[in-house]
Amino acid sequence: MTVSEDRPAAPPFRFRTWWYVLLPGGSAAMIAVHVTANSPLLSLCTMGAVLAGALAMIGFGLRTYRPTRPLPWYLLSASAVFSAAGAALRDTSDHALHPIDDVCTLLAYLAVGLAALIWLRPRQVRSNYDLLLDSALIGLGALLASWTFLISPILHLHGSTANTAVAAVYPVLDALLLTLVAHSVATSSRSESSLRLLHVGLITVLLGDLGHSLAKAGTLAIGREMLMAPLLATYTIVGVAALHPTMTGLGAPRRIHPHHSRQRASFIAVALIVASLVPVVGSSLGTLDRVVVSSLFALLLIGVLVRSERAIVRSSRSERRAQYQADHDMLTGLLNRSALLRAVNLNSERWAEQPLCLLFIDLDGFKMVNDSYGHAVGDELIANAASRIRRVVLRDDMVARYGGDEFVVLSPLDRQEAATLAERLLGAFVRPFELSAGEIPITASIGIACGSPRSTESTVYDLIRDADSAMYHAKEYALGYAFHDDARHAPDPVRYLASDPARHSANEPGRRIWRTSPRSTSTAV
């Protein structure tokens, strides 16, 4: 008998660690040759070799990992080609081809911007504009710095020509690109290694553009080969980013927490530092420069004020939410035990000189329902019971879930009003509960204790203890509700009422006996 075994599929190719050292090392060597070479032809060849290596790495990454959204990588490849073409034309052509190299460079900017927008679009946070506001502040700070240190000197140095206007556009585009990079950094995670490498590459090319602009403005004197080194390094970094397995996540939807703003704080701080330098640098600016700088400075300050106000509002909302969760029961929305114990102190002025009654409510037969139908149905019953209690009591009454199936109502009532409220609460449990498991009849037993808010802080504990004792008395003798004083002096309510029928009157409803049937109907005796 011949046993055929299927060969296991070959594992996908994975780069070893030394590849990530060898590839950047080789590119760094070629970049060094580009910087030190005096021959324009050799510099052009090294730039072509670095570009070809980067495109090969991007193509290999796309073929190996097959991302579901490859468009950003194609756009980054196109941007690398356009930027290299523009740089080559500037180095090898005369002024007759000068508009063509600018067109290639502008197309490179456009491709990078589209790629960034594609991978940033799925990372938007609905109904939250803090991310966009922070990115706008960073962009305004960068634009303010660009005008003060780059655009204005370029315009003053070269006059009003078409070439000067194009040269002044590049710092504006760099400010916009920096805004996109800052927004992407703020919405990225540590696990997205490929995206973080792209951030490093884009920041590197921005530094190279800054050097070009400073040289154009006459502030920095540096060779063209040295200025091209950041662009070549960016090609290599983008290629290595395409070889990392996380490259498949570029452009994929990702959940962004709306309150993670610590990553953006450093960028906003830089924008404010730049703004603080404007009064020092702006002393020699002309009228147009002062108008532009003042407008950008005002927009930046307004944005910072709006951002601060939103942060304060969000912090206040978070504090209120935390306080609500600390004081309320999550299942019923009623106050919890700790909030109840603070009720007298919080309402001491409003309840001053008024009698105070506490009604302790316990559901009869809840354990049987919980054991028979499960905790989910039990929770459903608790929530419905809390809703019925809340509809009966007044808005200013304190209603709390004391624990399990026990509820407490604390209100400034006299004895007569407390008895009336207890009757209404018992009436709310006459109708069976319509739950997911069907109609379930449930009755309640209520214990009532009365005191005064002028007493010591232990009054609340005393009221709870006395009302709890009265509730057990009412449950044991099927009274429906009972006052603590009556329960203490009348251990046998049937014998007590039989010996003195006159006490069973409307003037003392606390002594009324409620006999409850399994169908949750209550009849007064």
TrEMBL record:
<dbReference type="Pfam" id="PF00990">
    <property type="entry name" value="GGDEF"/>
</dbReference>
<feature type="transmembrane region" description="Helical">
    <location>
        <begin position="41"/>
        <end position="61"/>
    </location>
</feature>
<feature type="transmembrane region" description="Helical">
    <location>
        <begin position="197"/>
        <end position="215"/>
    </location>
</feature>
<feature type="transmembrane region" description="Helical">
    <location>
        <begin position="265"/>
        <end position="285"/>
    </location>
</feature>
<keyword id="KW-0472">Membrane</keyword>
<feature type="transmembrane region" description="Helical">
    <location>
        <begin position="73"/>
        <end position="90"/>
    </location>
</feature>
<dbReference type="InterPro" id="IPR043128">
    <property type="entry name" value="Rev_trsase/Diguanyl_cyclase"/>
</dbReference>
<protein>
    <submittedName>
        <fullName>Diguanylate cyclase (GGDEF)-like protein</fullName>
    </submittedName>
</protein>
<dbReference type="InterPro" id="IPR052163">
    <property type="entry name" value="DGC-Regulatory_Protein"/>
</dbReference>
<dbReference type="InterPro" id="IPR000160">
    <property type="entry name" value="GGDEF_dom"/>
</dbReference>
<feature type="compositionally biased region" description="Basic and acidic residues">
    <location>
        <begin position="501"/>
        <end position="511"/>
    </location>
</feature>
<feature type="transmembrane region" description="Helical">
    <location>
        <begin position="167"/>
        <end position="185"/>
    </location>
</feature>
<feature type="domain" description="GGDEF">
    <location>
        <begin position="354"/>
        <end position="487"/>
    </location>
</feature>
<dbReference type="InterPro" id="IPR029787">
    <property type="entry name" value="Nucleotide_cyclase"/>
</dbReference>
<feature type="transmembrane region" description="Helical">
    <location>
        <begin position="17"/>
        <end position="35"/>
    </location>
</feature>
<feature type="transmembrane region" description="Helical">
    <location>
        <begin position="96"/>
        <end position="119"/>
    </location>
</feature>
<feature type="region of interest" description="Disordered">
    <location>
        <begin position="499"/>
        <end position="525"/>
    </location>
</feature>
<feature type="transmembrane region" description="Helical">
    <location>
        <begin position="291"/>
        <end position="308"/>
    </location>
</feature>
<feature type="transmembrane region" description="Helical">
    <location>
        <begin position="227"/>
        <end position="244"/>
    </location>
</feature>
<keyword id="KW-1133">Transmembrane helix</keyword>
<keyword id="KW-0812">Transmembrane</keyword>
<feature type="transmembrane region" description="Helical">
    <location>
        <begin position="131"/>
        <end position="155"/>
    </location>
</feature>
